[in-house]
Amino acid sequence: MDLRNSIQKRRSIRTYQSKPIPQEVLEEIIDAARFAPTARAVEPWEFVIVRKPERLTEIAHHAVNGKFIAEAAACIAVFCKDTKYYLEDGCAAVENMLLAATSLGVGTCWVAGDKKDYCSDISALLLAPHECKLVALISCGYPQSPKEFRSIKRRAVADILHWEEFERSTP
Ligand SMILES: Cc1cc2nc3c(=O)[nH]c(=O)nc-3n(C[C@H](O)[C@H](O)[C@H](O)COP(=O)(O)O)c2cc1C
Which class is 3-160 in CATH? Predict the structure, then answer.
């Protein structure tokens, strides 16, 4: 899948086949993360791939809006060292991973980490160093059908684009 297709067809996918995701596919998703832009070139990110069912169940237990993680083939916990731009850096890495996963046929859903009360529970479970903050959880699995990757209606370019200033809709 080319980049434009991956961007348009990425969807949050929350139900998965029981099929495991090969290690090299998971590593390719992490490989995409490390090319994300990073303020001051710090690269503060660290990633934990969880595949053991009992751990996935425990993460799902904490993540109030991520119960489906229990049924995922894997969950990528995205941490960043507590730098000034940790959140921006971490989110840029997450988006790279979502797009890479889509291009590899892997369905994902971004589950909130930062700002959630359960961050400390997940950090403790995964033995995260004290200076690392949980930015996001990414559930991963092969979708029930490839048709789940699909373009959807979004706000039109004409609605969101302003030229030079908010009042101008033409160049
Ligand atoms: C910062 C952030 C946090 C999110 N947290 C959750 C979450 O906790 N649980 C969930 O099911 N989806 C979560 N999502 C996914 C959004 O619900 C989803 O992106 C949105 O509904 C649009 O659908 P789409 O991803 O298929 O385009 C989150 C997305 C973002 C960007």
Answer: alpha beta
